Amino acid sequence: MDQSALRLPAEWEPQSAVLIAWPHADTDWAERLGEVEDSYIALVAAITRFQPAVICVADDDVQAYARARLSSARIDMDRVRFVDVAYDDTWLRDSGPITLRGREGFCLLDFRFTGWGGKFDAAQDDRLVEALHATEMFADSGRQTIDFALEGGAIDTDGEGTLLTTWQCLHQRHPDLDRAELTTRLQQWLQQDRVLWLERGYLEGDDTDAHIDTLARFAAEDAIVYQGCDDPDDSHYRELQAMAAELAALRTRDGRPYRLFELPWAKPIIDAGRRLAASYANFLIINGAVLMPAYGDPADAPAAAVLEKAFPQHEIVPVPCRALIWQNGSLHCITMQLPQGVLA
Q1: Catalytic site residues?
Q2: Three-state secondary structure of 190-250
Q3: What domains lie within the chain, and their CATH numbers?
């Protein structure tokens, strides 16, 4: 395949499906499986209103159970496809394929998945892209293995060659590489010609070392949606205010400031003495809609209003995600979009 013709599509470009993995008793969700399943059912219901969902299942029993739960929720099962594959957990944004589109087909980038820098066992998840590719579910698609730790949640692109990421995450994964070397590698593998680095921004309860998809996201080539904090007494205030200033200083390819959309701040959600990372920036863009994580907080409605302004051509669909942040991630973290045409 001609590597020079490949490009990384923006998330708002046409999609074939959204890829997820069904939670089951052998994943870290076991302790609160019922609540989490309810979130997954709501997610699949939202996705299948607009496009298909591809669901990884660990075995036939998990598939039968998931099929029954989804069918009982009156979900359009003609838009649901199951694929049997082994996985440790369900964070498909980070263990799933990063897909490049080319004139002759697609290239699935298979970076190393190290359990966010060795924090968790991830042997099966590190082999997930290989296992999915072996099922022949992808059309006209090659697979490129890259011996470099990178998670999909750590990067965001405008589809035109500009990448947004955080220094904290990439430096944690690769402490021996400097900014210039990391920039060169990201540009080469992801077919980008600009990398915008954020130095500031973090969320308590986030164990990804500041993934960009919890902090700031492209909404268009000239627009960025970001998680704000307007409470001076909150521990995040200074850091997120500093991040907002960084975003204001960034420039588009033609030298203009980005149009910025600040998301409201949810009240602290505490679980067993631990603060959870409730970010509205962890939304998922699909065909004709933006799926927004909802936390049962008064800020849910204002967050939807911000997204309506940032994505005027999309329907904003809240999905209950309070159960998900117990395991330190949210809606975008458990999903991976598949570009139009990539499915067999």
Answers
A1: 333
A2: HCCCEEEEECCCCCCCCCCCCCHHHCEEEEECCEEEEECCCCCCCCCHHHHHHHHHHHHHC
A3: 3-339 (3.75.10.10)
